[in-house]
Design goal:
With 186 residues, this protein is an alpha+beta fold. It has one domain. Helices cover 42% and strands 19% of the residues. The chain has helices at residues 6-9, 13-62, 71-88, 165-170, and strands at 97-106, 112-118, 153-161, 176-184. It has a 4-stranded antiparallel sheet, with helices on one face. Helix 2 (13-62) runs antiparallel to helix 3. The relative contact order is 0.17. The mean pLDDT is 83.
């Protein structure tokens, strides 16, 4: 009876195991990179949406006494947002950026007036952000001010399409990063 060496039977298993480990670590690297990119963009959008909703809220103290938003107010805020995001993002693409600016103000009879301003789904204006619940469905958040009127509500939602590293490998689309900030007005 001949004795067969165990090392001769296991020849090539190291190469196979190394290939499997290499594929695993490559996928882990791609997944980590994708998550890092998305978290970075999410943090930037969080800070930017919070800053913009404060600008929108405080515009009544800075510029006019009208509580209702206008196209000019929103366009100014979005110009600020795009310029700021462009400064902090290496490869900013305006067509991958979108927004929803909402406000709920109240008339003399305390009835809510809902205004919404959206980026449109076109090559020059950017992508369309989707909100799960519109601000006009959250009027219960408004409180009565010391002047006896309901306070205005403002919300800024920003979204950005990022690269799809892991989604391309899995056949899914994980590209949209979105952030919103809600503020009670004066």
């Amino acid at each position: 009876m001949s004795v067969i060496s165990l090392t001769s039977k296991q020849r090539g298993t190291f190469s196979i195991e190394m290939a499997i480990v290499g594929v695993f670590f490559s996928l882990l690297f791609v997944f980590s990179g994708d998550v890092i990119i998305k978290l970075t963009h999410k943090g930037k959008l969080d800070r930017l949406s919070y800053s913009l909703v404060n600008i929108v809220k405080e515009r009544t103290q800075l510029y006019s006494k009208s509580y209702r938003l206008t196209d000019a107010n929103v366009n100014t805020a979005i110009k600020i947002a795009k310029a700021s995001f462009k400064r902090t993002t290496n490869q900013f693409d305006a067509t991958s950026f979108g927004y929803v600016v909402e406000s709920v103000t109240f008339d003399q009879a305390h009835k809510p007036i809902y205004d919404v301003f959206r980026s449109q789904n076109s090559p020059t204006l950017g992508i369309r952000c989707n909100v799960a619940k519109t601000l006009n469905n959250m009027t219960h958040l408004s409180k009565i001010t010391t002047w006896g009127r309901p306070s205005s509500l403002y919300r800024v939602t920003l979204c950005y399409e990022t690269d799809n590293w892991i989604g391309d490998l899995l056949g899914e689309s994980f590209t949209r990063v979105q952030s919103d900030a809600l503020m009670i007005g004066r």
